[in-house]
Structure formats: C-alpha cells, structure tokens
Amino acid sequence: MSKIDVVRKAMQDALKAGEKPRKDALSLLLSALKAKWVDKHADLTEEEENAVVYKEIKEAQETLDTTPADRTAIIEEAKLRMQIWGEFAPERMDEDGVRKAVAETAKELGGGLTAKDKGRLMKALMPKLKGKADGRLVNQAVDELLR
Q1: What angle do CA 2, 93, 134 make, to 5 degrees?
Q2: Which of 39, 127, 128, 142 has the largest count of CB atoms under 10 Å?
Q3: pTM of the complete model
Q4: Would you tell me the crossing angle of helices 95-109 and 135-146 to the nearest 10 degrees?
Q5: No. of H helices and E strands in the chain?
Q6: Cα distance between the two ends of the chain
Q7: How many whole angstroms from its chain centre is CA 108?
C-alpha cells in the first residue's frame, strides 16, 4: 500500500471522526504526495514518498523558526502539522548512529582523511544515509571526524 493510500485513509478517518485540524494537515500532505506523483508520471518509491514527508516537515519547521512569537495560531498549526506528518515518516538515525556510519565509511575509504577529503567522504556517505538521517547531522559528524 503506497503512502498516498495510507494518508488518504487516515484523512478519511479524521473526517469521519470530525477532527478538522488533522484532516486539513493530512490533506496538505496528500496534495504534496500527489503533486510529486504527477511530476514523476509514475508511482513513487518508498524513498521518494519519505522525502516528500520530510520536506513538508522541514517546511513546517521553517515556519516555526521564522514566525514571530506573538503569532501563536500559526505556531500551533505548524506544530500540529509536524506532529501529524511525523506519524508518516520513518524513524531517522540518531547522532550516535550517524557518527558510527561516518566512522565506518571513513575506515572503508582509508585512514588519515583530512578536511580536503570531505567531499569524497560525503559522496560515499550520502547514498547510504539518504532518507535515513538528517543531512545537517551527517555534515556535522563529518566535520567532527575530520578535525
């Protein structure tokens, strides 16, 4: 069952239960998934579906970060959306898991990596961690290793 079907079912359940804020948030996520599906002209892979969910969560986080504190309605709505959309996103790796993956990949590439080797290390890492870890966290772990 695709994530589009899962989100559509959850949206219908929210509608039946009279949970308008949840239905609205799920409707936005469903629209984003369908837009990606239409753009691709084919079914989405699980990784692509997850990327859409993460993108929506990231945009809601940016809304939280840029909204003035006195705009409580917008802040609450963004928090609710992030919470609801988080139900459809797989768990991401924590800092320890990312550091372990960075160390293992560095070992595979050979020891003695310097700051000049960051691009090579990131190129080897990102296919392994794409969709599983936050890119900023990976970048931070690589910087720590190369110091």
Answers
A1: 85
A2: 142
A3: 0.72
A4: 50
A5: 7, 0
A6: 45
A7: 27
Q: Angle at CA 135, nearest 5°, toward 131 and 138?
A: 110
Model confidence at 29, pLDDT cuts 50, 70, 90, reads: very high
CB neighbour list of residue 145: distance below 8 Å, 6 or more residues apart: 99, 102, 103, 106, 113, 121
Please state the rounded mean pLDDT for residues 22-40: 95
Dist. CA 111–CA 106, nearest whole Å:
7
Q: How far is CA 142 from CA 84, 93, 121, 123, in A?
A: 31, 15, 8, 11
Domains and CATH numbers, the chain: 3-86 (1.10.1510.10), 95-146 (1.10.10.410)
The two most distant CA atoms of the chain are separated, in Å, by 60
- Tokens 């989405």 belong to 44
Q: What are the pLDDT digits (tens) for 59-100?
A: 999 999 999 999 999 999 999 999 999 999 888 888 888 889
Contact indicator for 7, 35 with CB cutoff of 8 Å: no
Give the separation between CA 147 and CA 54, rounded to whole angstroms: 30
105-117: pLDDT as tens digits: 888 887 777 788 8
